[in-house]
Task: structure prediction
Amino acid sequence: MSQMIYDVNAHRHALLNNPTYLARPGFIQSVGWKEENGGHTLFLHASEPDVADQHGYITQVGLVLPSRYYCGAAGSYSDKYGQPFSNAKYSFLLGRPNEFPELATDWDTSLEVANNIQLSIASGGTPTNWIVDENGSKVIRLGMKIFEKKGGNNPSGIDMTKWPVAANLRDHLAAIIPTHDARHLPLYDEHCALVPPGQIEKKLRGALAEITYKIMRYNFEKDGKIVESITAEIQQIIIKKPGKPQPPAMFSRGAKPVVFAPISTLLAAASASPASAPPASTQLAAPPSPPTLIPTVQSVPAVRIVTPEALASNNVGASPEGNSTNVSGKPSEKAHAPDDGVRSNDKPGEQTVEKTHATSDGSCDAINANGEETYWRRN
Result:
C-alpha cells in the first residue's frame, strides 16, 4: 500500500473545527471537573439544560518521542517495581511537532491551556504526570492499560495465549490469563487501518499522530505527603505521518562480538604485495596517457655505395657487427612488453585474494595478508 501524502493545511482546518481540539479557541470555557471513581474527571459542559454532561475528551497533535517509549507487548512493566503484571501499560511521550510551524504554534497554545486546566483543580502545588519535562521541553505523557478484567464492556477477542511477550514474562502472562483479557490499543495507521499488536511498537515510534484522550485527577500519599496526579488515558491514535525508518543497530544482533581490525593491520594490508590486491575484475584501469605529438619523419631509403672491395668480399647488405640496424645506423634494442604487474610465475588473469566467508549474522570474517583474522559488520 502506497504512503499517503500528508496535507497539513487540510488537517489543521479540520482540527480547528473539532470541539475536542485543545488549541481551539474557547476550549477551556467548555469544560470543567466532576467527581468520579474516587477522583475528578474532566467533563464537557452540556450545550442544553436537559442534556447530561459528557466526558471532556482532549485532542492534540504531536510527535511521538523515542525517549521513555514503552509500546511493546509488556509496555512499561518491570519486575523491579513489584507491581502485578496485570497493571502493565502502554506509555509514551508526545512532543512539539517542529516540522510543521502551524501545528507547532498550536502545540504551544495547547500546553498553555493544559496548564490552566490542571491548575484549576490543584489544591496545592502543580499536579504531576500529565505535563512533564523531557530534555528541557514540556511534553505530554500518555498511557493505557494493556489488560482488563474479564467481563468488560468491550471484549477484544484476543487470544491471550498468543500475546507476544518476551520469554522471561511468559509465566507472568500465564498467571493472569484466567482473570484478564488483552486490550487493543486503538492505533490506526495513515490509511485508517487498525494496527495489529505485534506492529504497534514499530509503527508508532517517531510518528506525527493525532491523539484523543481523557484525563483524571487523583490524590495519593507518598513519603508522608499528599501528591496530586493527573493521568491521560488514550482513547484513540491516528498516525498522520509515519516516523522515519530506524537503521538496524550495529551491536544488537548478538551472534558474535564486533571486533574492529587495528589500523596497523589495515595499513599493512593496503600496502601489501600484488598478491593481496583485489581481483583484476574489480581493479580500475588506468586512464590512457595523452598522445605525445612527435613530428612525422619521412623515411628515406639509405643510399649505399657499392665498392669493388665490397663486391669482392661478397658482404653486400650486412652490417659490420652482423646485427640489424635502424635508420640512424645504431643497433636496435630488443622490444619489451610493458610491466602489467603480473609476475612471470603468475598465471594470466589470476590474483591471490583474501579468504573470506559470510557468517550467520550478516558479518564477514577474513584472513588478511598477515595471517590475522579480522571482522567487520555489514549494515
In short: The first helix runs from residue 8 to 16.
